[in-house]
Amino acid sequence: MNFCVYLDSGTEIHGYIVPDGFSTKPCIRVRLNDEDREAELFTWVYIEGAKAMGAHETGNVGFVLTDDIIPGISTAAKVEIYDPETRLIIYRRIQPEHIHKKVLRLETAYIPHRELDLGLRPYFQFFECGVERFGFETIRQMLEIIHHPSVYVSGRILQRAFLSYISYNTDTTMVALRDPFYELASRIIVFSRANRQEFSFVSPRDKMLFKPVMNLFDGLAFHDEEAVTKAIRYAPKEALNLLASPFTQQLVASNPTDMPTLDDVTKALDSLSQFTVFDPGRDDTSYPKIIAATLGVPENLVQMKPPVEAIQRLADVLRQISRVEHLLEVDLLLYHFIERACEDATAA
To answer: Which residues does residue 103 pair with via DSSP β-bridges, in sequence order?
Structure first.
């Protein structure tokens, strides 16, 4: 989906929304001042580029909102426009409390720390977290918003796939690392249940990609050390490789099936050096504090859940399995260099 609101003069709001379906008739909903009452309307303004570039069948994807169409829009302090199908809010009228920054928080945990994001929602004109559930074009559009000064995007995306948009249109980037064994443990626990339980953060795309892993660990009693060890030792290489060094992969891969190599460690370190905020994950308090300080908001607005005991226990089991150490080899080496750099900095 492509979208843009490029003018809000107060009396008029101009924009467009191009749905993923070539023949789909675009629709928007408009809400004023947080009221329950909403107005729904189909777009009607012809946008030459949408038709000429083959993005939409008719090109009638634009809209111009005035008091004649949405009574009270010119005097409303708050205006929200959203796509009713995805519930994505494509536009909010700017507020005095909105932070004039364009922020990307790269989520590296498979079980997302959305609690880091949600307290920040009132402070940004455009805000969306968990963006990995959207398609490439929609995420690209979020990162490419140029008409709003206040943007916050968070999600578990492949950085390299969006690097050109991040580089020229994002001024604040944030990322954190965590213990590679803990991250693997969290993925095994989720995937062991994913065939029978719905998780909001497991996208249809991931269900296809990780299906071999889900089948491999389906119903695994992860509290049974012997069962876990046996499942991993005898797992098909092709399935297990889907879990290889996910942190490095997220920083350097162009495709979710790309296997990270030792040569990628240097690239990953270089990538990390470009972030405005990087937290090595040595404790559970520093990352939210740094985020709050960087954005200039009260510390209590940014919270982070502590490690889950069941996941930590499984992580301790995984540390004893040599095949797991090889599986995470690239992330462990990257983590080693980061830890050493932190120790050197502390000593200095």
So the answer is: 152, 172
Q: Each residue of 199-244: pLDDT tens digit? A: 999 999 999 999 999 999 999 988 889 999 999 999 999 999 999 9
For the chain, the residue count is: 348
Q: How would you classify residue 189: left for phi > 0, otherwise alpha for psi between -120 and 50, otherwise beta?
A: alpha
- The helix/strand/coil state of 126 is strand
Instruction: Match 């994913």 to its residue by tokens.
Output: 194
CATH value of 1-93 in 2.40.360, 3.30.70, 3.40.50, 2.60.40: 2.60.40
Give 157's DSSP letter.
Answer: -
Greatest C-alpha distance within the chain: 69
The domain segmentation of the chain, as residue ranges, is: 1-93, 180-280+305-347
Report the alpha-carbon distance of residue 129 to residue 133 in Å, rounded. 9
* pTM higher than the cut 0.90: yes
